[in-house]
Write a structure and sequence with these properties.
- By secondary structure, the chain is of the alpha/beta class.
- 38% of the residues lie in helices and 19% in strands.
- Bound molecules: 1,4-dihydronicotinamide adenine dinucleotide and magnesium ion (MG).
- 1,4-dihydronicotinamide adenine dinucleotide (NAI) binds next to helix 4.
């Protein structure tokens, strides 16, 4: 089974953690009888912008649109390019043009990782956030009238389409159905946001009828954030609109220790376009070039990618290897209180992969 992967390291620590992800993918391929062909691209980076005056070449869609997946590091170097230019010129284009309408983020407390939630042990925190990734609150519909006057008015609309809401809910219910607990939680705010959010609730209830074996509930986003901190063991699959999902999918990993280990999949489930796998963190300019970045987020993203490519056994082996290595203090990077370099941690995980 040959998988063709577009590799885009981007900026900062993206260039340090992506090679560790590739190292682990090679080890997984050798162990599980599959193969990778990697095509490396230097665009979607601020270096590229400085040379070419744009984040990506005009034909970027043709260059990477035919690959089976995109393996992405991180983009952003605010010293040279403003963040909204680098992000909207690259990652946001991928998500929208490739219709990656699911942003999937596993939240899991790993052995050996200190959590800010007192008394929690691995097993207590093990859930997914499924975030709508293409519409909702993040629309470009709106504008400003009477700018820079006392009569200034600023409007930005939320867009929910039946197709857009139903397809992400279906993905979340299907995921819940495959899991042991078969439990879905919906994030809402239908008491305050009185048009779109009641619609979201209505579609959740309608979708639930198709999945009678999944038990489901809903919470308003405000109390839901409190429950994430106080009762993380309540959750299994949490589905949310674009804005609420954005917030929950940073809060979740924060509850499990370091942002350095969290992965994300930007997924087009129909596979009409390539999906993109990346760590949750950014380019970390404050530690870039020091070879101390934690590569686990990138490596776990590789596991999500393996799963998406139909290599479920290899994906599970990568997650097991991450758990094995994190349990051993000598391979922890500085953000976890250790002294290992990025490559030492990555090598240890690659070596720990077994059937
Ligand atoms: P960041 O995630 O890059 O860094 C936040 C803090 O976490 C920093 O102190 C950093 O050192 C630490 N950190 C992050 N990843 C780490 C790792 N793997 N190991 C150890 N420590 C780690 O977020 P920040 O500082 O807000 O943004 C920096 C740049 O990254 C900006 O240009 C921003 O736009 C971009 N960014 C890009 C993202 C992406 O490509 N998906 C996501 C978030 C930010
Ligand atoms: Mg975010």
């Amino acid at each position: 089974n040959l998988h063709r992967i577009a590799v885009i390291p981007g900026d900062g620590i993206g260039k340090e953690v992506v090679p560790e992800g590739l190292r682990v993918l090679e080890a997984a391929a050798a162990t599980f009888d599959c193969a990778f062909h990697f095509d490396h691209f230097d665009f979607a980076s601020c270096d590229y912008y400085q040379q070419h005056g744009e984040m990506m070449p005009g034909d970027w869609k043709a260059l990477i649109g035919g690959h089976d997946a995109i393996f992405f590091g991180a983009v952003g170097w605010p010293e040279t390019v403003p963040d909204h230019v680098s992000l909207w010129g690259s990652l946001i284009q991928f998500r929208r043009e490739f219709d990656q309408y699911v942003n999937l983020r596993p939240v899991r407390l790993m052995p050996g990782v200190p959590t800010p939630l007192a008394g929690r042990v691995p097993g207590d925190i093990d859930f997914y956030v499924v975030r709508e990734n293409t519409e909702g609150e993040y629309s470009s519909i709106g504008g400003r009238i009477f700018p820079d006057t006392e009569r200034e008015v600023v409007i930005q609309e939320t867009v929910m389409t039946r197709v857009g809401v139903d397809r992400v809910l279906r993905y979340a219910f299907e995921l819940a159905q495959r899991r042991e607990k078969k439990h879905l939680t919906s994030a809402t705010k239908s008491n305050g946001i009185s048009i779109t959010m009641p619609y979201w609730d209505e579609r959740v209830a309608a979708m639930a009828a198709d999945y009678p074996d999944v038990c489901w509930d809903k919470y308003h986003i405000d109390i839901l954030t409190a429950h994430f901190v106080q009762h993380p063991d309540w959750f299994d699959v949490v589905v949310a609109s674009n804005l609420f999902g954005d917030i929950l999918s940073d809060l979740g990993p924060a509850c499990t220790g370091t942002i350095g280990i969290a992965p994300a999949g930007n997924i087009n489930p129909e596979r009409r376009f390539p999906s993109l796998f990346e760590p949750v963190h950014g380019s970390a300019p404050d530690i870039a070039g020091q070879h101390i970045a934690n590569p686990v987020g990138q490596i776990w993203a590789a596991a999500l990618m393996l799963d998406h490519l139909g290599e479920g056994r290899a994906a599970a082996a990568v997650v097991r290897a991450i758990e094995d290595v994190l349990a051993r203090p000598e391979y922890r990077t500085r953000d976890l209180g250790g002294e290992a370099s990025t490559a030492e941690c990555g090598k240890a995980i690659a070596d720990a992969i077994c059937v």
